Amino acid sequence: MHIEKKPFGQFWNNDVFRYTLTNSNGISVSILNYGAIIQSLTVPGREDRADIILGFDSLYGYLKGHPFFGAVAGRVANRIPDGRFSIDNTGFQLNVNAPFHNHLHGGYRGFDKYVWESREFTTEQSAGVQLHRISPDGEEDYPGTLDTTITYTLDKTDRFSFNVSAVTDRPTIANIVQHSYFNMAGHDSGDVCAQELTIHADRVTPVDDRLCPTGEIMDVTATPFDFRSPTRLETAFESTGGIYDINYVLKTDNRYVLKTDNRTPLPCARLHDPDSGRTMTVATTQPGLQFYNGHKIHDQEQTGKGGFRYPKWAGICLETQNFPNAVNHKDFPDMVLRPGETYDHTTTYTFSVE
Question: Of 354, 352, 350, 344, whose CA–CA distance to 148 is shortest?
Answer without folding.
Answer: 344
